[in-house]
Structures are given as structure tokens and as C-alpha cells.
Amino acid sequence: MPIATYGLVALDCPDPASLAGFYQGVLGGEVSTYDEDWYDLRVPGGARISFQRAPDHVPPEWPRGDRNSQQAHLDLDVTDVERAQEEVLALGATPLDLDDRGGERRFRVYADPAGHPFCLCWE
Questions:
Q1: Do 84 and 91 contact (CB within 8 A), yes or no?
Q2: Dihedrals phi, psi of 44, to nearest 5 degrees
Q3: Helix (DSSP H) and strand (DSSP E) numbers for the chain
């Protein structure tokens, strides 16, 4: 029997409304707010990502591991990486590592507008 059930992933950021809007553009779903410091995104399928105001947020330095490492990242599955890449860049993502070795490495790495790394992955 499990000890707990999954609730959510929370990302610190300087502007939770803006970051919730970015991920809503990427994943769909509905944004709600508890207060100006906490926004939730419920994505299709029921998972929840939350965005918490952290005024002194410092984006991680991907891919460093010695200091200010990525701490966590999201893997987002896509069926057409070229189309998905075009759309996340239009929403404000920044490319971090696009070398998928001609499709051999089945992911590309980006940063969201607050600097959190995320990957677009495909089969």
C-alpha cells in the first residue's frame, strides 16, 4: 500500500500568472489561482502543476551539477518535435540544447520563461 498519492509539482518563479499561462499554452488545461502568489494549472488527464511566487528566484544553470543545478525538470511528450519546438519558442521558451543527434537522442532541452529546464521528448 502506498504511503501517499501524487498531488502536484510546484515551480518557484517571479511571476506565477505568466508562467502558468506559458504552460497552459504548451499543455492546455485550466488555470486557477489561490491568491496572487500561487497559481495552479490542471492539465488534461488530471495532473496539476503549480506556480509559486519567489521574488528572488534564480534560474538554474543547466546543465551544471556543481552549483545552482537544474534541481528538477519536466519531460513533455510530443508527436511532432519540429512543430512543438516552433510553438514553445513562440510562447517564450529559450533553447538550451537542441542537438538531438539526428533523432538518436529523443529529446531537446529548453527553458521556460522563468528559466526552468524542460524537455520535449518523443518515441
A1: no
A2: -55, 135
A3: 2, 8
Residue with cell 543527434: 101
C-alpha grid cell, residue 42: 490542471
Place of cell 499554452: 25
Return the amino acid letter for 31.
V
Taking alpha carbons only, the member of 74, 73, 67, 78 closest to residue 103 is: 78
Is 14:52 a contact under the CB 8 Å cutoff? no
Q: Which residue has the higher pLDDT, 108 or 1?
A: 108
**Bridge partners for 111 per DSSP:** 94, 117
Q: pLDDT tens digit string along 102-115?
A: 889 999 999 999 99
pLDDT digits (tens, 9 = 90+) for 15-28: 999 999 999 999 99
Residues 6+ apart with CB under 8 A from 120: 76, 78, 81, 84, 85, 88, 107, 108, 110
Residues 11 and 19: their CA atoms lie apart, in Å, by 9
pTM value > 0.90:
no
